[in-house]
Amino acid sequence: MKLFKVEGTVLLQTTSALYKLDNQSWDALVNQKNLHDFLDAYAKTHEPLASTIDGKQLDAPIGSQEIWAAGVTYLRSKEARMDESKESGAADFYAKVYEAKRPELFFKSTAARCAGPDQEVLIRRDSQWNVPEPELTLFANASGKIVGYTIGNDISSRDIEGENPLYLPQAKCYQRSASIGPCLLVPSKPIDADTQIHMSIERSNEIVFSGSISINQMKRKHEELIGYLFMAMDFPQGVYLMTGTCLVPPNDFTLSVDDVIHISIDGIGSLRNKVAVKQ
Ligand code: DO4
Ligand code: MG
After folding, report:
1. Which atom of ligand 1 is the closest one to the Cα of 73?
2. Fewer CB under 10 Å: which end of the chain, C or N?
3. Residue nearest (by alpha carbon) to ligand 1 atom 5
4. Would you list the DSSP string of 10-78?
5. What's the pLDDT score for residue 24?
6. What is the mean pLDDT of residues 31-51?
7. Whose CA is nearest to atom 2 of ligand 1?
8. What does the longest C-alpha to C-alpha distance in the chain come to?
9. Residue 96 to residue 85: CA distance in whole angstroms
10. Which residues, 6 or more positions from 188, have their beta carbon under 8 angstroms from its beta carbon?
């Protein structure tokens, strides 16, 4: 079952039909006890819409939740970060956090700063090396239970982070450095361990990078990441958590203005964003 946000209204897509959820604020809805069962019952007791989701302009599937992110959860991310931070002497921090019991967790975005499907994402004008990071993104409700999944793009400045890991908030958090969508997938059971993430980057109608990975390459468990996130913080509206990247373009690649980033995750859908520079 999938929840979409379209011009402020919430739409529920089942395998066979589309429904409008009346009088439902996003925050209250996604924190319903037994969300999947609630949506299932809703679909069984309401009339479907005559239309489909195709062609509708989607908003980011978010209310007032914060977006957090986990880092160095895949070997490929550890290696890329060790490489970019060689000169700063910080490579060891990435090696250590990959092995440590405590995961790396960082604040990524507010809902207001985040982009949705087909909106522009931004790169910084003071950075020369920028990459998208396609990440399976968990939604945990106010009780800390993972009840949904979406696609996240954790756009990052590799030169700013590489210069000094203390610059991580500037490399990671700025206007529209995060994108999520197209929907919140609310399955009846946890997402399949072999789920694939695909990304391609299009420049002037050519694909300049593409790759796919399985989330089974991840070193940490989803519950482990959420457990640390909730250990000393409350999230009364629930929270999104990007789970880290395993797809890193080669070191000579940087995003350019007008590039189009396509990310898809099996069972969730596709997220498309065009790149611009934050002025
Ligand atoms: O350590 C910095 C951030 C790592 C990250 O964003 C990732 O691994 O996806
Ligand atoms: Mg990341």
Report:
1. 8
2. C
3. 71
4. EEEE-SS-EEEETT--HHHHHTSTTHHHHHHHHHHHSPPPSS-STT--PBPS-SS-EEEEEES-SHHHH
5. 80
6. 96
7. 71
8. 61
9. 14
10. 36, 40
The pLDDT of residue 168 is 97
Q: Are strands 2-6 and 269-277 parallel, antiparallel or unpaired?
A: unpaired
The pLDDT mean for the chain works out to 96
Across the range 15-31, mean pLDDT stands at 93
Paired sense of beta strands 269-277 and 120-123, if any: parallel
Under the banding of pLDDT at 50, 70 and 90, the label for residue 160 is very high
φ, ψ of residue 262 in degrees (nearest 5) = -115, 120
Cβ–Cβ under 8 Å, residues 19 and 11: yes
Strand pairing report for 146-154 and 134-140: antiparallel
Q: How many residues does the chain have?
A: 279
Q: What pLDDT, on the 0 to 100 scale, is given for residue 8?
A: 83
Distances (CA, A) of 198 to 75, 105, 113, 201: 17, 23, 24, 10
Q: Report helix, strand or coil for 230.
A: helix
C-alpha neighbours within 13 Å on the C-beta side of residue 151: 30
Dihedral sign for Cα 21, 25, 27, 28, please: negative
Task: Report how far ligand 1's centroid is from the alpha carbon of 80 (Å).
Answer: 10
Q: Is the entire prediction scored with pTM above 0.85?
A: yes
